Every structure is written in C-alpha cells, then in structure tokens.
C-alpha cells in the first residue's frame, strides 16, 4: 500500500505553513498521521502537496491562561493524558483521551488532528462540546475563534476551511468538577459504538451543575441539554440519576451499522449516561 507521490514540506513556523497551504489547490495538512496516512495509503486521497506541522513548536504544549486551559493542536494524546494541569482543570478531557485507541496511536496522534478529522466515533469531540471548548483557527486573513457548538458541522466536517490551520483549543477550567467518559465498544482499544461524556459539580450531596454530551449518536457530537437541566438539584444516588438521564436519547437519530441499530444505540445511551453521571458525581 503505497501512497501516490506528493511534495513534502515541513515548515518551522505557522506563517510558512500558511504560505505553503496557499501554494497549491491540492494541499493536505499532516499532524500525527494516524488518520491521514491510512487514507493516503488506500489512495482515498492523493494530494499534490503535504504540509507536516510536526516541526512548528508553537503548536505544541498545554498552558493556563486566566480561566482557560489552552491546548496546542499538535500536542499528542499522550501528553494530554499525562498532564496534571489537564487532570486538575478539565478532568473530563483527561479521562476521555485515555480511552483513545492504544499507546502507539496516543503517542503519534494529536489532540488537534483528532478534532479536525472529526470522526463521529472519535472520543474527544463530545468532551470538547460538553466543556464548551473554543477553537482557534488561523487562515490567510488572520485568526478567528469558533465555539464548539458551531465548530462541529457534519461527519468529518468542521469549521476549519481550506487553507486554514487549527492552532489551539481553549477549554474553560472546570476545576473541582467530577468527570467520567463511559465508552462502549465490542473489543478493547476500539472506536466507540456509543459513549457518554459527563462532568458535574456536586454541592453537598446534590448535583449543582452538569455538562453532558454524546459520542456517535449522530453525525456530530450531541449536547444533552435537557438531561443537564434534569440533573440539576438531583441527589447523587443511582435511582434518581437513572430517572434524570432516562430520556437522554430522545430526538436523536443515531446511525445503524453492523455494531448495532439505532434503537440499540438509544438504549445504550441511557445506560451509559447513568453510569457516566454516577461515576462523575463520585
Ligand atoms: C488503529 C487506530 C485506532 C484509533 N482509535 C481511536 C479511538 O478509539 N478514539 C479516537 O478518538 N480516535 C482513534 N483513532 C484516531 C486517532 O485519534 C487520530 O490521532 C486522529 O483521528 C487524527 O489525529 P492525527 O494527529 O493523527 O491527524 P492526521 O491523521 O495527521 O490528520 C487528520 C486530518 O486532520 C487534518 N489536520 C490535522 N491537524 C490539523 C490542524 N492542526 N489544522 C488543520 N487540519 C489538520 C489533516 O489534514 C487530516 O485531514 C485511531 C486511529 C488508529 C490508527
């Protein structure tokens, strides 16, 4: 399996990368290559030019900026998983990224790459939506910031356009919140058939705030706003939480495939939501 020939560039600055993106109508960005390389090898894409972002140091790293956590697009899944700053301020991301594939993929694959690839079964989309992350995208006319609610547009389609680069993801701090990512797949280290991302703030023995989103229940991640409302003031108790999340799949149109049909996925969503919220609430 050999990709079609392409010109390879590895710029060391964002400016240079943007220039290269404008140099041909048929350019592809390479991040960790975990999704793109198989696509090239299968010749599902045959770009003339590949621009590797791997040498642009400014795109890598995790930092705190006031009330936000800022994660560079080229930060590897493994770096996010090992970060104590992420675990402290965005525990949901920390837990979800540990569920991505296997150690090899987590070492090569990048946080930004997964969020641009936007596979509906990807594990980082729902947590980013639940945490109200925003996405900094740079193009020829400068940077713009897109909230998660507008960023995921369709299956494998985001607000990142031709000639643009996702540079960083800003995540509002959820310090002190409990979190859990409950993922269901048939075999270990595989894509989610369905998953539920939940992060909650508990006061005393009741849920004071809740953010919940669904993976692979549609072409984009789904924010479970009605369930979030239903959870407010609910006691941290298995039966009351089960009642509050029971309707989480209402109105969703999940895909049907060899892993399960829509009804099966809707059933899974409520089971996983109960487990996820209960675990998040401790
Ligand atoms: C065997 C295997 C199992 C996997 N299992 C899972 C799993 O369980 N859960 C999960 O969530 N993921 C899984 N993945 C996918 C993994 O998370 C990839 O890392 C991710 O989808 C792509 O990230 P990447 O850095 O490798 O991007 P690449 O493959 O390099 O790029 C992916 C796409 O995004 C574009 N792109 C990348 N970065 C940018 C950027 N900064 N700006 C603009 N465009 C950009 C590229 O042009 C390309 O179109 C799996 C992958 C493999 C190979």
Structure characterization notes:
With 282 residues, the chain is an alpha+beta fold. It is 32% helix and 26% strand. The protein has helices at 14-21, 36-41, 77-82, 84-89, 91-97, 103-108, 111-117, 125-130, 148-151, 225-231, 238-245, 262-280; strands spanning 7-9, 27-30, 49-52, 62-65, 68-72, 134-139, 142-147, 152-154, 157-158, 165-172, 178-184, 194-203, 206-215, 222-223. The strands form four sheets. It has a five-stranded antiparallel beta sheet with strand order 4-5-10-6-7. Strands 11-12-13-14 form a four-stranded antiparallel beta sheet. A three-stranded parallel beta sheet has the order 1-3-2, with helices on one face. A hairpin with a 6-residue loop joins strand 13 (206-215) and strand 14. Helix 11 crosses helix 12. The protein is globular and about 60 Å long. The N and C termini lie far apart (48 Å). The mean pLDDT is 97. Bound molecules: flavin-adenine dinucleotide (FAD). Residues 28-36, 53, 73, 100-101, 105, 109-110, 112-114, 116-117, 122-124, 160, 165-166, 191 line the site of flavin-adenine dinucleotide.
Give the DSSP E fraction (strand runs of 2 or more residues). 25-35%
**Low-pLDDT runs:** none
Label the structural class: alpha+beta
Which sheet architecture does the biggest sheet show? 5 strands, antiparallel
What number is the mean pLDDT? 97
Overall geometry: globular
What is the overall number of helices? 12
What Rg do the Cα atoms give? 19 Å
Q: How do the strands of the widest beta sheet line up side by side?
A: 4-5-10-6-7
Fraction of residues in helices? 25-40%
Question: Could you tell me how far the N terminus lies from the C terminus, measured between alpha carbons in angstroms?
Answer: 48 Å
């Amino acid at each position: 399996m050999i990709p079609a020939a392409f010109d390879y560039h590895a710029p060391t600055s964002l400016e240079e990368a943007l220039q290269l993106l404008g140099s041909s109508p048929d350019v592809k960005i390479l991040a960790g290559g975990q999704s793109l390389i198989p696509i090239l090898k299968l010749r599902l894409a045959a770009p003339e030019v590949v621009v590797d972002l791997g040498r642009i140091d400014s795109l890598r790293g995790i930092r705190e900026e006031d009330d936000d956590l800022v994660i560079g697009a080229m930060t590897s899944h493994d770096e996010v998983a090992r970060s104590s700053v992420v675990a402290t301020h965005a525990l949901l991301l920390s837990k979800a990224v540990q569920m991505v594939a296997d150690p090899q993929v987590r070492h090569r694959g990048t946080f930004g790459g997964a969020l641009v690839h936007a596979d509906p079964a990807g594990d980082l989309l729902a947590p980013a939506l639940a945490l109200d992350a925003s996405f900094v995208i740079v193009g020829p006319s400068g940077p713009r910031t897109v909230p998660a609610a507008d960023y995921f547009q369709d299956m494998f389609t985001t607000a990142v356009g031709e000639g643009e680069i996702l540079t960083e993801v800003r995540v509002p701090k959820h310090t002190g919140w409990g979190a859990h990512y409950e993922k269901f797949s048939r075999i270990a280290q595989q894509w989610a058939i369905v998953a539920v991302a939940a992060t909650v703030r508990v006061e005393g023995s009741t849920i004071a705030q809740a953010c919940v989103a669904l993976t692979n229940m549609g072409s984009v991640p789904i924010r479970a706003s009605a369930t979030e409302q239903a959870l407010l003031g609910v006691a941290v108790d298995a039966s009351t939480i089960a009642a509050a999340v029971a309707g989480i799949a209402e109105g969703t149109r999940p895909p049907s495939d060899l892993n399960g049909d829509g009804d099966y996925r809707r059933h899974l969503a409520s089971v996983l939501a109960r487990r996820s919220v209960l675990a998040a609430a401790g």
